[in-house]
Q: What sequence folds into this?
């Protein structure tokens, strides 16, 4: 199975930390958050990965290179222009980024996963893939229950009794939220999805593609599995994530004697 990691954003809510470091390279106790994601993918047998880049793209490519250091294969899709050898990033939206990769590389040939490169996750991806295939929809979104008073920070999803998605709300007021299930930025797609994405222009998964599918009554499902999900959305979130790592409150991460060990299904990284 193949995966795409979304890494083209500027990380504006984490400035000034992201003035010179792309958000996916922000370290959790010296390990970039996207490295944790790649180890997680590898642990579930997902070894072919493409990363879309734009802002400070060279730094991401220089760090991960071809992925061999982590035991995976990594390629890149730069969004923007190269003028006189200098890159000028211009992100085109997550869905348009998917389409660009497919048009240029024909990378996706079966069920594939798309995941945001700025969160710590501890979900059973293999189980999620199994559920997605059983549900038989063109796409599934992994969801997370959050306290109702915090829904204003996220994209809120409403499900019917069969876990089919009925509606989306982007950062609603607490009193207007239809549920406390939120979009975690982890998606499963079938290749038929590309027929619903325009060939040009900006287009986003959450704000453009999914609402269009719901409007057209195309089956789209939510998967609500219990898992640890730590969003690096703001400076406060980033600070809290490092505190959790320091105090051994992040699953599969242990900090002992000034050494951080990350272990996903026996794929171990010691820092």
A:
């Amino acid at each position: 199975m193949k995966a795409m990691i979304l890494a083209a954003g500027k990380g504006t809510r984490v400035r000034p930390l992201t003035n010179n470091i792309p958000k996916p390279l922000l370290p959790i106790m010296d390990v970039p958050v996207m490295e944790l994601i790649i180890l997680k993918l590898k642990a579930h047998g997902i070894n072919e990965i493409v990363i879309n880049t734009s802002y400070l793209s060279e730094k991401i490519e220089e760090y991960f290179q071809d992925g061999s250091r982590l035991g995976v294969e990594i390629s890149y899709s730069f969004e923007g222009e190269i003028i006189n050898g200098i890159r000028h990033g211009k992100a085109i939206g997550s869905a348009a980024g998917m389409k660009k990769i497919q048009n240029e590389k024909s990378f996706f040939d079966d069920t594939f996963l798309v995941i945001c490169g700025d969160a710590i996750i501890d979900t059973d991806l293999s189980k999620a893939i199994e559920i997605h295939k059983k549900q038989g929809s063109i796409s599934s979104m992994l969801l997370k229950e959050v306290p109702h008073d915090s829904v204003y920070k996220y994209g809120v999803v409403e499900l019917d009794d069969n876990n089919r998605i009925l509606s989306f709300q982007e950062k609603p007021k607490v009193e207007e939220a239809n549920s406390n299930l939120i979009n975690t930025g982890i998606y499963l797609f079938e290749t038929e999805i590309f027929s619903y994405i325009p060939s040009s222009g900006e287009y986003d998964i959450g704000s453009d593609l999914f609402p269009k599918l719901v409007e057209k009554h195309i089956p789209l499902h939510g998967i609500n599995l219990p898992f640890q999900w730590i969003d690096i959305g703001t400076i406060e979130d980033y600070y809290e994530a490092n505190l959790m790592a320091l105090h051994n409150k992040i699953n599969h991460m242990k900090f002992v004697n000034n050494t951080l060990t990350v272990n996903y299904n026996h794929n171990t990284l010691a820092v």
